[in-house]
Design a protein that fits this description.
The protein contains three helices and six strands. The chain has 93 residues and is an alpha+beta fold. The strands form two sheets. It has a four-stranded mixed sheet with strand order 1-2-3-4. Strands 5-6 form a two-stranded antiparallel ribbon. The protein is globular and about 35 Å long. The termini are far apart.
């Protein structure tokens, strides 16, 4: 898990995650925005690809596949007052 800051967010999503994907045993990578309710959960699939799940609500629960752990988003943001993150609607057809 990484808590993103303004100064490291691009590095954590880019160069660092690229290096981490080279670690054979790494199966989960979670990025937590400290300023808004936004969690990016990357999990390694059986074929070696990475799947992204995003969470924008404190009502959600992050289910960490490799450990079968349940992590309520509201527990992550319990002691912070993050600003709501604006989500765009679905793509036009």
């Amino acid at each position: 898990m990484e808590v993103l800051s303004e100064s490291t967010r691009d590095y954590d999503r880019g160069t660092k995650f690229t290096a981490y994907r080279g670690i054979e045993t790494l199966t989960d990578y979670i990025l937590i925005d400290q300023n808004a309710v936004h969690i990016e959960y990357f999990s390694k699939e059986c074929d070696g690809t990475w799947r992204l799940r995003e969470y924008f609500s404190t009502e959600k629960v992050v289910e960490i596949k490799s450990t079968e752990a349940m992590l309520p988003v509201n527990a992550i943001y319990e002691r912070v007052a993050p600003t709501p993150k604006v989500r765009l609607g679905p793509c036009p057809q």
